[in-house]
Design brief:
The complex is a heterodimer of chains A (595) and B (351). Chain A has 595 residues and is mainly alpha-helical. Chain A has one domain: MetI-like fold (Orthogonal Bundle). In chain A, 67% of the residues lie in helices and 0% in strands. Chain A contains 24 helices and no strands. In chain A, helix 12 packs antiparallel against helix 13 and helix 16 runs parallel beside helix 19. With 351 residues, chain B is an alpha/beta fold. Chain B has 3 domains: 30 residues; 165 residues, D-Maltodextrin-Binding Protein, domain 2 (3-Layer(aba) Sandwich), CATH 3.40.190.10; 144 residues, Periplasmic binding protein-like II (D-Maltodextrin-Binding Protein, domain 2, 3-Layer(aba) Sandwich). Chain B contains 11 helices and 11 strands. In chain B, helix 3 runs parallel beside helix 4. Classes of the chains: A mainly alpha (595), B alpha/beta (351). At the A-B interface, helix 12, helix 18 and helix 23 of A face helix 2, strand 2, helix 3, strand 6 and helix 7 of B.
Chain lengths: 595, 351
């Protein structure tokens, strides 16, 4: 019996995937009707989407590019690029950035794909715990997790290091673990990379048409061979997409390398602003970073040229097959347990303990237990205002991103409008722009004519623009992945039956991909809440957000304990918000075929 | 009818005069002692938790003025302010933070700050008064040698800046990176330039420091975290930070360096384009007055420039007990790049 909660509605009857069909992108073969909802409306919406993306993404980037080339300084040219790239510390930062980003991307796939496969397709234990851990990883402020691991595996006095040295009688005051290292940085950045791979691959695995796998098994293929020759190839675009996201998100990390004091390109971008006050130098490094992500985007688009090959949702509803792996299920269970412990349980407990410390340096002692940090947070008008600002911005940004994302994704995937692919490139550009530099681009844009005449600078609006622009890639990418899985024949059936373009989008397409859109909304919402790199530059009087308030606490206004207390409160707020969201949706997003 | 016309003519002649009197009265009102009022926005390069007690006292005295503190590292504030000045979109009334960073901004923008004479600077030594009338030093913040008492016994703790280059402290030291933390520039200046003629100091000092593999932090916040957790047991830090941490019960203490104590100054400047210039000028003047200087003892653990209000520190000493060296902010502003490069070169060479 088909489960109506899985993928396509049971009333649809279009054909499903044809594995050897290489006809390319699933563009509508039915010419849109004229009039409202027809070709004219489609083009109007395309123009509006382009203008909006230009304003959101291109304008700040253009400002960055012009600044990097010396516009306004009277000395146009590539001098800033050569000057910066010749600096040893910038070369070191570039090397570290590429090394860590590549390492995270590869390891994320190696860990994330088995994890998502285990959750979606095996009878491992603890699936819900893994899903919760994935979601928590996405919205946990990286800054907070780094703080936790500094407390845990700081090389000199980290709690775990002290415990290990005592247990094994190691006669040294340093190590064995060191969070302030490349390996430490990589391991701290890995969980979010795994989460990105998971959210790209798990929905696809859960909604995959089992007929191909069943055919393989019927022909005698063992589970391992079936997975390698059928399942993995079908997931190729999602795996690559997840790896791409893991790479580019790591590329633009700010909070983690900042706290670990690592040589990193985003840190150099920030230092170029604060040390020399050179927008030109900062802009040059930002453009260098952007080139990296554009190259990754190019590779991604090459890999998904034949979308129909990956279409796994057609008109039939179905239930993915659970694989009986015997003792192998315990391997997946162990993997899930390690992930959940390392990314959530251990660091959250550490942060909780820190939040209840009276004096940070006195350690874990009963006489050091105190509510002082929470009293400070709840009595501080700045922190309370910051919480409110973060919630407003996150909600607004998530909604804006999903609406804009599905429109852009639809135009790119479904329409034949010349240049629709340009939207895809524009939408993904923010992935390669460090939040700090994007913020600088926004500041320059909205302090200069003509956009400077609008009251955006210094208000929550400029933060909202940064949040929306930086999350557009996720909204578009997730919407695209969701649309790719839906056969165009369903929409064609709607159009043939008399439905307009808008009616088809609203009543056929969106319901089919609503789970993906909800994933996108939640992901954007929870990503915006702890956003730091742009906020730290754009914040102003009355526009503090949670992350900047936590930084302020950590820098002295309340101390590390107050920052930890804010982190715990933030996590509670997020958890409650997600529970409410799940109730509204009507089904738990964490549920899968758990039998 | 005739009477009505005459009345109208009389009114036409009298009314303009009445209006003129009203307008003159409104203009003249401030001259008769009406205090400035409204909102005051201060760009603050220090910890808001340190400055708030001072602001609270000001607001008690002038209830018509509501002060908002916007806290950021001074370097970042200066960058933000520069951008706003370039676009004629200044928001702040006052910038209050590290003097050397503010001096940098003043050099680049000679017309940015208001030149004014504070109403009452009695008790402030002449050499600490503003030379240009634009940037006024309100307090000095000494740099001391902080250490973790759980790891280092007081009798074993370093007592001089030169002692920090001793190899026995290898792997145990942290300091703020001068590339990102402007508050450390006076310390860098002190050992690099002020003591350059003495053996072991100058650029060579940093070779010794670099050999001990110090952990460089972006700011003083993380520096404090490393110190109180014992992750790094020694650090040159500000007295403000030490006072706050000791007051919170953290296992840290500090020594005054035998060579002398460089001070980072807390300075204030009123923006020429301040949205509420009267209130801004009032606040700045008040901060330099005896009432404002006394307010620093309410919580901002620094040394007011008015020597009548020297606080007592946790070690029982006052400013008078120590040799405080106040750097030349103009020199710092002009040479910050050179200083940063000296430190960075030493660290790069030691890698």
């Amino acid at each position: 019996m088909d489960d109506p909660g899985k993928g396509v509605g049971a009333e649809m009857t279009a054909t499903s995937v044809s594995a050897d069909d290489a006809s390319g992108m699933q563009r509508l073969k039915v010419k849109p009707k004229s009039g409202f909802g027809g070709a004219f409306a489609t083009r109007i919406i395309w123009v509006a989407a382009v203008l909006l993306l230009l304003l959101l993404v291109v304008a700040p980037m253009l400002a960055l590019l012009l600044v990097s080339l010396g516009a306004g300084s009277g000395d146009l040219g590539l001098g800033a690029y050569f000057e910066q790239l010749a600096l040893p510390r910038v070369q070191r930062a570039l090397y570290t950035t590429l090394l860590v980003s590549s390492g995270v991307a590869v390891l994320s796939v190696l860990v994330g794909v088995p994890l998502s496969f285990g959750v979606a397709r095996t009878r491992m234990y603890g699936k819900k715990i893994v899903r919760v851990a994935i979601l928590l990883t996405l919205f946990s402020p990286p800054f907070l997790i780094v703080m936790a691991y500094i407390a845990l595996i700081g090389p000199t006095n980290g709690w775990i290091n002290v415990l290990v040295r005592d247990l094994f009688q190691i006669d040294t005051s340093y190590g064995p673990f060191n969070v302030f290292s490349i390996l430490g940085f990589l391991l701290l950045a890995l969980p979010s990379g795994v989460a990105f791979v998971f959210i790209q691959t798990a929905p696809l695995l859960e909604n995959m048409d089992p007929s191909l796998e069943e055919a393989a098994r019927l022909n005698g293929a063992r589970p391992g061979k079936m997975i390698m020759t059928i399942t993995i190839p079908l997931m190729r675009h999602a795996i690559l997409s997840g790896g791409l996201l893991a790479f580019t998100v790591t590329l633009t990390l700010y909070g983690t390398p900042y706290l670990l004091q690592m040589d990193y390109l985003t840190i150099e971008i920030r230092n170029a602003l604060l040390v020399t006050g050179s927008f030109q130098a900062s802009g040059a490094l930002s453009i260098v970073l952007a080139i990296g992500s554009l190259f990754m985007l190019f590779l991604y688009r090459l890999s998904i040229r034949n979308v129909r090959l990956f279409q796994t949702i057609g008109g039939k509803s179905f239930r993915p097959a659970m694989l009986d792996l015997g003792w192998g299920r315990h391997l997946f269970t162990a993997l899930g347990a390690v992930y959940a412990l390392a990314t959530c349980v251990i660091p959250y407990i550490a942060i909780l303990l820190v939040s209840f410390m009276g004096a940070r340096g006195l350690g874990l002692r009963w006489d050091n237990f105190s509510f002082r940090a929470y009293e400070f947070v709840f009595s501080s008008p700045i922190f309370l205002e910051a919480f409110g600002n973060s919630l407003i911005l996150s909600f607004s940004a998530a909604t804006s991103v999903v609406v804009l994302g599905v429109v852009v994704a639809y135009i790119v995937v479904r329409t034949r409008i010349t240049g629709s692919g340009i939207l895809d490139y524009i939408a993904i550009l923010p992935l390669g722009i460090a939040g700090t530099s994007f913020a600088v681009g926004l500041i320059v844009t909205y302090l200069s004519p003509p956009l400077g005449y609008f009251p955006v600078y210094g208000t929550l609006s400029i933060l909202l623009l940064a949040y929306v622009a930086s999350n557009i890639p996720f909204g578009v990418r997730i919407s695209q992945n969701a649309l790719i899985q839906v056969g165009s024949e369903l929409e064609e059936a709607s159009r043939i039956s008399g439905g307009s373009w808008m009616q088809t989008l609203m009543f056929v397409t969106v319901p089919l991909v609503k789970r993906g859109l909800l994933y996108a909304w939640i992901m954007v919402f929870v990503q915006c809440l702890p956003e730091l790199s742009a906020s730290i530059m754009l914040k102003g009087p009355g526009t503090e957000v949670v992350s900047t308030a936590m930084i302020a606490a950590w820098e002295g206004t309340g101390g590390v304990q107050a920052a930890a207390a804010m982190g715990i409160i933030l996590l509670l707020v997020i958890g409650i918000t997600m529970l409410v969201a799940m109730k509204v949706v009507g089904r738990s997003l964490l549920e899968a075929s758990d039998d | 009818m005739k009477n009505r016309l005459e009345t109208m003519r009389l009114g036409a002649g009298v009314m303009p005069g009445i209006y003129a009197l009203i307008i003159a009265g409104a203009v003249a009102m401030p001259a008769y002692g009406q205090d400035p009022s409204g909102d005051l926005l201060i760009y603050l390069g220090h910890g808001a938790v340190d400055a708030q007690p001072v602001v609270d006292i000001f607001e008690e005295q002038y209830p018509g003025i509501s002060v908002t503190l916007f806290e950021q590292p001074t370097g970042q504030l200066v960058t933000t302010l520069q951008l706003e000045l370039n676009a004629n979109r200044n928001r702040a009334d006052i910038i209050w933070g590290g003097g050397s960073a503010i001096a940098e901004l003043d050099i680049r923008n000679p017309d940015a700050f208001l030149s004014f004479e504070p109403a009452d600077t009695s008790g402030i030594p002449q050499n600490l008064l503003s030379e240009n009338g634009r940037i006024h030093t309100v307090a000095t913040i000494p740099y001391v040698i902080g250490y973790n008492t759980s790891i280092i016994a007081p009798e074993d703790s370093p007592r001089s800046w030169l002692e920090l280059t001793d190899p026995k402290w290898s792997g145990m030291m942290a300091m703020a990176d001068p590339a990102t933390a402007s508050a450390v520039h006076p310390f860098v200046w002190f050992v690099t330039t002020h003591l350059a003629d003495e053996e072991g100091y100058g650029p060579d000092y940093w070779k010794g420091i670099a050999a001990n593999d110090p952990y460089l932090t972006a700011g003083h916040g993380e520096l404090g975290e490393l110190l109180i957790t014992g992750e790094r047991a020694i650090a040159p830090v500000t007295i403000t930070q030490m006072q706050r941490q000791i007051g919170s019960g953290e296992p840290v203490a500090f020594n005054w360096a035998t060579e002398g104590t460089p001070t980072s100054d807390s300075s204030i400047a009123v923006l020429e384009a301040a949205p509420n210039r009267p209130a801004a000028e009032l606040f700045a003047s008040w901060l330099l007055s005896p009432a404002g200087q006394k307010a620093f003892t309410a919580g901002f653990d620094s040394i007011p420039v008015n020597s009548d209000f020297s606080p007592e520190f946790f070690d029982g000493t006052t400013a008078a007990d120590h040799q405080l060296i106040v750097p030349d902010n103009a020199y710092l502003a002009e040479n910050v790049g050179t200083q940063v490069e000296i430190v960075r070169s030493a660290m790069e060479a030691a890698r």
